[in-house]
Every structure is written in C-alpha cells, then in structure tokens.
Amino acid sequence: MPTAMHTGSTPGVYYQAIDAGGPAVTPLRTDIAGFAGIAERGPVDLPVPVTSWRQFVSWFGDVIPAAFLAYAVRGFFENGGVRAWVVRVASNDPVAGAAAASADFGGAAGPVWRLAASTAGAWGNRLTVNLRELNRIQLTTTGTDPDGRWSRLPGLSGLAVNDEVRLTQPGRPPVWRVVAAVDPMTSQAWWVPPEGPRRGYHLPVTGLDHTAPMTVESVEYRVLVSASGVLVGLYDRLSLVPENIGYGPLVLAGVRPPVDPVTGTAVWAPPAPILIEELRADTADLRGLDLDPATETALAGGRSGLSWLSVDDFVGQPVAPDDGPVAAALKRRGLRALEDVAEVALLAAPDALVRPEPPRPAPPPPCVPDPCLDLAAAVITYPAPDVDAPPLFTDQQVYAVQAALVEQCERLRYRFALLDPPYAAATDPAAGLRGVLDWRARFDTRFAALNHPWLRVLDPLDPTGASIRLVPPSGHLAGGYAAGDLQTGVHRAPANRPVQWALAASVAIDETGHGVLNDAGVNAIRTIGNRGLRAMGARTVSSDPDWRFVNVRRLMSMVEKALDIALQWVVFEPNDVFTRARVTLSVTNFLLGLHEQGMFAGSTPAESFYVTCNETNNPEREIDLGRLLVEVGIAPAVPFEFVVVRVGRVRDSLQVKEASAT
C-alpha cells in the first residue's frame, strides 16, 4: 500500500533528485572493419560478423588461389583486430553465376527432397550425402477401428502427434499415415483426428485388413554429409511431415540469421553444410523415399560465379525509396550491403586487385613401371582441375571499386577507406614510384589512405611452407588501426606499428623514396633496421592540410557520430535556455572525457575545445524556424612526424637535446 511519503499527502517538504543534464554522450568503437571480396563458400551479399579467424573459416572457408579476402581477414586478426563484417561477392548471372551443388531424392511419384550445399560455390561438388531411413519404433496392432480411423497398440512410448508411420501386412502394399492424436488411456493412435481440423494426410487406413494385425513402423530419415571423404555433418530424425518438429526443410533451412526469441536479436552461427528443399507440390503424399542405405550420392552443379564477376558485383547500386524488397535486394550487393551495418568504421575491398593463381594439384602417386608395358608409347595425362577463376580487372575497373569505397565513406561520413595500389605499381622496382604516385593522383579525399607496397606472406595453400604469395596490405593495416584504437585510442596515428603475419614488403623503399611518398600522401610500408616490417605513414589522400593525418579525420568522425547519436533526444524539445544548457552540459562532459584521455592537443580544456550553444549563435530568427545550433571546436592531437636530436659540444662534454623540426 502506498505510504504518505510516496504520495505526498502529508504536508511537508520532500526531496527528489532529478538529472538536469541530457543523456550522456559516450565514445563509439572505431576498430570494426568491413570487408567485401571473394570467398570459397558462405552466403552471398549478406554481411556476416566474425570475431576470429576460425569463425571466418567456418563461415567462408580457408584461403583460396582465386581470392585475397581470406588473406586480408587473417591479416586483420593477426595484427590485433577483434571484430569485422564480411560480405562475399559473386556473380548472379543466371547462366554462369553462383549456384549450389545439389542432388534430388524421391520415389515412384517423383522427386521429394533436394539436398543442396548450404551456400553457392564449387566447394559443394566435394560433398557426398548418405540418406537412409530410420525405424525407431516397430509395433503390432492389437485392434483397428472398422472404419480405419484409429489403431490400438501395445504401447505408445516414443510415438507422438505428427509422426509418420508405415503400416504393412503380408501380401499387401504398405500404407503411410501420420499420427493425428494419441490416447494413452486407451493406447490408441488416431489416423483421423477425433475432433478438430483435418489435414490432407489425415486419412483412414485403407487397403489393409482391419481385422488382422498390422505392423506399424515409424518412418524418419538420417543424413550423413562428407566432404572429400571426411564426415562433416550428421542430422537425425528428419521427417517428411511439414508439421513435424523434425521436418527436413525446416531443420536444414536456408542460410539466414535466426532470431533469439528472448532478446529479439540475430543469432549468428555458421550454417550446416547442406540444406533441404521441398520439391513436392502436394505435401499430403507422404510415401517414403526409395533409398539404398549403402549409397553415397555426390552433389553436383556447384559454381562459384567468378568468371563473370563485374564491378557491379562489388559495389551494387543505389537503392531508391520506391524500390520494392526484391529490387532492393538485387541492388544491395557487395559494398552496398555493408551500408546498413552502422558499426563499421574501416572499409576495404582487396579482391578488386585479385590475381588468381593456378591451383597447386596434389602430386601424383608413385609410378611402378609394368615390365610388359611399352613405356615409349605410354602417355599419362592428368585432367585439368575445374576452376571458376575471376577475371583480371583493368586499372579502370579497380579504380571504380575503390572510388565506390571512397564515395561510401564520404557519404556516410563515419567510416574510413583503406586503398591498395595496383599490382604493377607495387611489384616493379624498375618502374620506381611513378606507378603508385600516378595512382595516388586519382584520389583527393580526407576519408581514405593509400598504403604502398604489397606484402609477402607465407602461403597456407602450400603445406610445405615454401611458397610466398603477394597480398594487398589493406587487411593487415586495418588490424593495426583496430589494435591502436583498442590499446590507446583513435587519436593515435596508426603508424610505426609492426606488421604481423608478413615476411617483407613486395619492393624495398629507401629513405629518399619514403620522403617522396610521404610528401605525396602515400603511406610507406618498409623494414627499418632491426625493428622489422612497419607501416611508416599515417596520411590521408587529401590535398587539404587540415585533413592531412588519418587520426585527425577518424577522431573527428568518432566525435561527430557520437554527438549525432546522443543528441537525438533534442528533437522536438523546446528551444529555450534550459534545453541549450542541457545540450552544452552533455557535449562538454563528453569532450572533457576525451581531453583527459589525451585525444586533444591543448594542455587545458579551454585550449582543447569549446562548446557554444546560447543566444549568440541561436538568435530569434533561428528559434522561430525551429533550429538549434551547437557549435563545437576541437584541437585534435597531431602526430610528430619529424623529431630532431641536436648534439653539440659544451667545453669538455656533449649535450643532447630534442627539438621539433619546422
């Protein structure tokens, strides 16, 4: 029962604490990367979050000769990244586009189920399935209704509603029925519901002698899936009945993130290797499948959809407001699919520069010569592997993909693009720096950085560990960006960090070349002394000196996005002194916290930032128009690029002093 203190019915003075400020503004994560590229398997054009290299492999497969995506993601995690969103790209051409390998199963009435690889790709052609029938329950009836509506059994343990059974008698064809109801008191299994709605397969038993015992067997199915001879999946108690909890197409459904019924959020889990599609037009025909339990059926027809890959597959198309769901899905492809993931702060598409390598076939078995064979006439040939290789993009096509990266970052304002130089510019030491400088001249934006050259990594495709593969550096550097953000903060320049999981740069850069690249706004990756391979640059590709440094742009993006999200409560608030004071307090507290973390250049808050939201920048004419202006000024910390150590002689000693270079 409420007390007088709670209701205020007793005269007196009561104290209540009310927060006069607005909701707190909190810093946002800036370490989350987004990648779009070619993968061995996985859903196409669906952003999937991954938090480890092993999780990426479970979704998209390991490294492949036809792609750089897996190398980039592994480089991201090896260099300190902890979370990324990945989009697999593939051609959707109806003839040569991506397709899933499959095989059909059925009986005399035609195909019933199609077992297909869970995602498109040639990887599904390595799968084999063994589909067999299971009979967990086998009972003999002790009586049957004269009209065939129910049968009495010696026990109902294990038999449930919507279970499929097969009823047989010697010399008669079998009959398939579905349990409509069970009565434990009378031990009856009803084939026709005693009351309530009936479905098409709720039929009385016909074609059998109701006065004679009948054998009742439960009918379920088991699927064993193998990849290259290794068991990778076992799925039991699958049913042909759509209402059964074990309905095959429901248990092994298409790739989509299931939703947690409690939290309402998507539960991301790697898909099963196969899915089941229903092929019957009439699901009331529940005759069992014709199966040989010893047969291994190979899936076929899988295509990776790479040979017809185009720029549109990487970048998608703008979605118009009047586009329907089908049209929007067709346009929201590749990089466009990452637009809806608000937490992405770094963007890369290394496979725009992919140079597919021929697969390394396994060595042939040792040959034992037959003494009776004419070796001179014997010609041994090995079939060429069936590889759906992507095309080699021209420089103009590569530029189109990277321009889409930049355009998305500029339009959304809160993400940053990592650009890779063309292969020729990154691998030809005789050409010098002209190639990468020409590529740099194509861009002028504060939302992107160009890193040079490529990296040499030990290729996991070679089990001997003797092969080296050149890969674009964007994935490795994205991991370095993320590690710096997590360890220190986004205000630290993402440079002078060792590059992990890389042996060397594709070409060596000396001091003179480094200076030329630095002046042009190209970030060099080079080995310096015994400090290993490091990224030695943190400049954007902007001609504006105010936005020269990567950390300045990314710090401002984080501040802008945090304020954009946290100040949404101001909409429809009265434009009065109280509201403006609350806004000023919220923003000031947020910036003060950043100042204490060393993100600004000033030594005091007054030197680091200011917040103005009062009558000076909100005159009556703006108030009459329903506008509220908050002016925020920030002095971001700029990295030291040049440190001069002065050494001089003073009488009989030496003095060493540090001074900033001008």
TrEMBL record:
InterPro entries: Tail_sheath_C, Tail_sheath_structural. Residues 542-647 form the Tail sheath protein C-terminal domain. Pfam families: Phage_sheath_1C. Belongs to the myoviridae tail sheath protein family. PANTHER family: PHAGE TAIL SHEATH PROTEIN, PTHR35861. This is Phage tail sheath family protein. It comes from Flexivirga alba.
